Amino acid sequence: MWKYFIRPLFFLFDPELVHNFLIKWTKLFGGTGLPDMRFTSPLIEKKVFGINFPNPVGLAAGFDKNAEIVTSIRRLGGFGFTEIGTVTPRPQSGNPKKRIFRLTKDDALINRLGFNNDGVDAVVNRLKNKNFKYYNTSLPIGANIGKNKSTPNSKAHEDYLECFKKLRSYVDYFAVNVSSPNTPELRNLQSTSFLKKILKTLILENNKGKKKPILVKVSPDLSNSQLSDIVSLLLQLNIDGIISSNTTIARENLKSDNLKNEIGGLSGKPLSKRSTEMVRLIKKQAGDKLPIIAVGGIMSPKDVVEKINAGASLVQIYTGWIYYGPTLVYDINRKLLKECLNN
Known about the structure:
Elements: H1 2-10, H2 15-29, E1 46-48, E2 51-53, E3 57-59, H3 73-77, E4 81-87, E5 100-103, E6 108-111, H4 120-128, E7 141-145, H5 156-167, E8 173-177, H6 192-206, E9 214-218, H7 224-236, E10 241-244, E11 265-268, H8 272-286, E12 292-295, H9 301-310, E13 314-317, H10 319-324, H11 328-342
Parallel strand pairs: 3-4, 3-13, 4-7, 7-8, 8-9, 9-10, 10-12, 12-13
Antiparallel strand pairs: 1-2, 5-6, 6-11
Helix pairs in contact: 4-5, 5-6, 7-8, 8-9, 9-11
C-alpha cells in the first residue's frame, strides 16, 4: 500500500511540507489509526553503552528535530530508539527554502536544512512535559547537538556545552554533530584540535554528575586517514561511541540528473557502500572499544544485516523509512530475529 498508493500521493507535494504534516498529525493522534509496528523479542534486544534498547533500529536525527513525537514514535515506526535534533542553543530558522529534494531514481534525498530548530530551551520544556496520553514507553532518547551558525568555531565548545548541560536530565545519550555539510565551516570541527576541545569540555561536565554516553557523528567524506585520526582521539578520550555516518556532498553515479547538483547533504541508497566501509574500518581499528551506530543507505533488512556484520552494534534509518514506509522497521526486526534463530 505504501509503495503504490500512499508514497505516490505524498510525493506529489514538497518534502518539507509532507514532513511537517506528518509531525503535526502524529502530535495530534499519536499514530492512532495505524497498525502497531512494535516488535519485541529478547533475542533482538541490545545493551550498548549501558543503555537497554528494545531493538537495534533507531530513527536518525533530523526527523523529530524538536522532540515533538518522542512518545509515539515506537508504535508508529517500531523503532528501538530515537534521536532528536540537531538541537542548538538558540533557535534558528535554517537555510532558505526550498531545501529538501527527492532523487526518486536513486532512492535518495538532498537536504540543506541548516540545523533549523526551536532551540534547546524549547526542546527541554517539551521533554519536561512529555505527553504520555498515547503510548508511554521507555524508548531511549538521544540528543543530537550542534552549534549555532553565528557561533565561530573557536567558541563552538560553548554551544555544545550549553546543550549538554540543559538536556542531560532528559535524554539517554548525546550525539556530537560536527559533520553536517549544511552549516558553514562546521565540518572543520572534525579536526583533532577542535574536536578534542569540544569533547574535553563535555567530558569535564559529564564527570560532575550522572554520566551520559557521548558519541560523535562523523562525515562520510572524511578520508580513511582522517577517520583513523578521529577514532584514535575517541579511544584516547574514552568516548562512548561513534555514529557513521552523516550525509555526503559527493554526487557519484546518480541517475537524477536534474537534481544531483543541488547543494546539500545526500542521504539514502547512494551512501550505503561508503557507510558500510567506514563501519568496517572503525571496527578493525577500535575492536569492541568503540560501539558503532551505523546510518546511511539502509533501505532494506538486508542492509541492516550487512551493517551489523560489518561491526555495527545499532543502526539508524531515515531516508529508507520515507521511501519504503512505516513497515520497514518491523520487517528489519523480523529479519534480525530470524537471523538469531538460525544461528
